């Protein structure tokens, strides 16, 4: 059981369904997920495309399209955010909870100077002047590792590299020192060395500011590198949760085992990669869960 | 900065061949249309001798090549020639007529932008009823012909309500209030169709910007919807909207010809229409060239504004 002080984000039996125009009811995108994030940890959610991990993350800030119906409870610092009005949600976004997305190039307004896009976040939540916001934005740019930040302030996004743009996005997200950062595939669109730098940056900022991070990824290497705990999602369900070490050493769920077995660096060179069975039906998942539970009981 | 100047100079240099080809086309078309300016001028009772005499006086008995040389050479010497019917200097005529057309087209475009852009933004962000009402306006505005709308407006405001004059003109300098009263109906006639085009363009551009991922990030940063639309979506949609406005200036100048005719406004359009019926070659040539030059200059300014609005285009021009 978690208490109010050590849990930043709580999902209780969260389900998300999308209203579809088709004749058949579609399967829920997120199906009965319960999960609790401890203050200051990096929690990774892994899963393949369509497993519901991004949908789950989007419930926190109310960023799902209007066709989505969310049930259950999503609590940020013990406050249920699902019933919040649009203006209360706006106060939460970018202040108490920040979120960053996969493609940094697409996350920035191409017509705005990068520095102004950081200052804008500060001014949306704090009653400070233009000049003070600018000073803070330059300090943030320096903190996320942008060399000669003051002279970069006025640059349009296309003048910066992909990695630098993602640093700007992180600076904009962290501008108001949020307690929780939701990072949806923050490094996927970048090349491998830059990817590692961005993850190190998130890890360092977490240490410096005590920010809790919910990191969504399909990359098990990322999980191994920075996450304290990991949840595995498949077909909208959270299959298992454990420390990153536990998960890699002793995966309990058959899907997790299949996923790990398919990692290239765990397979001897020259042999074929095992394949994760493509579309597991929900029934077969239940069966395999029953098997896993039976095995665990023995 | 110098590269921007180079861009302007290159664009200006490009307008020279365009205007040159334009001048040949106008010169030929008016001469290929059946009808003789001298016979039109002198009436059917004129003797062949008289006709030949006047033809010689006007230089119309020379070869087309010489006539074209006179026309172009005159322009380069700053002499636009004379109207062969009224014998007025064409520079003076243009100085009188161009301001009327510019006022009409300029006010119509201003009104169209003031209606089209805000409504287009509302159409992109508003609810079901806003979308339906604006779509109704777009269909109405685009499908109604100018001349029909003009007649309808005259019937309502000058005929039934009797609050505005049906036609006529006074210069702004002589009577500002009267000038505006005369301008209201012609400007409305031109502006409504334009506003519909601009509304449609704005709606499409803003809608597509609002679908882009950076808008999701703006929402995730807690930026107000109003600010996202006004500060970011409209800013990103601006190059597309300005481009369409620039193109529509050409359509507007064409529409102005009809509207000047309908409301008896003494603009360049009316000057050219009258000159065509009289086969008044020099006036047609200079009038059409003046309208074409206006459109080319507006296109140039549009390109410069678009380049300034989009930092990527501006950088592209610099390298």
From TrEMBL, chain A:
Which Pfam family is one of those matched by this entry?
A: ABC_tran
Q: Give me the Gene Ontology terms describing cellular component.
A: plasma membrane
- Identify the InterPro entries for this entry: AAA+_ATPase, ABC_Ni/Peptide_Import, ABC_transporter-like_ATP-bd, ABC_transporter-like_CS, P-loop_NTPase
| MF annotations from Gene Ontology | ATP binding; ATP hydrolysis activity
SUPFAM superfamilies on file: P-loop containing nucleoside triphosphate hydrolases
| Topology in the lipid bilayer | Peripheral membrane protein
What SMART domains does the database record attribute to this sequence? AAA (SM00382)
Q: Where in the cell is it found?
A: Cell membrane
Keywords (alphabetical) are: ATP-binding, Cell membrane, Membrane, Nucleotide-binding, Transport
Cited CDD domains: ABC_NikE_OppD_transporters (cd03257)
Where the record annotates domain ABC transporter, the positions are 9-260
Q: Which family does the entry's similarity section mention?
A: Belongs to the ABC transporter superfamily.
Q: What is this protein called?
A: ABC transporter ATP-binding protein
From TrEMBL, chain B:
Ranges of residues in domain ABC transmembrane type-1: 98-306
Intracellular or extracellular location(s): Cell membrane
Q: Which UniProt keywords apply?
A: Cell membrane, Membrane, Transmembrane, Transmembrane helix, Transport
Which membrane topology describes this protein?
Multi-pass membrane protein
Q: Which residues cross the membrane?
A: 12-33, 104-125, 137-164, 180-199, 237-264, 284-309
Q: What superkingdom does the record give? A: Bacteria
A GO CC annotation recorded here is: plasma membrane
Q: One GO biological process from the UniProt record?
A: transmembrane transport
- Gene3D superfamilies the record matches: MetI-like
UniProt record similarity statement? Belongs to the binding-protein-dependent transport system permease family.
Record-given protein name: ABC transporter permease
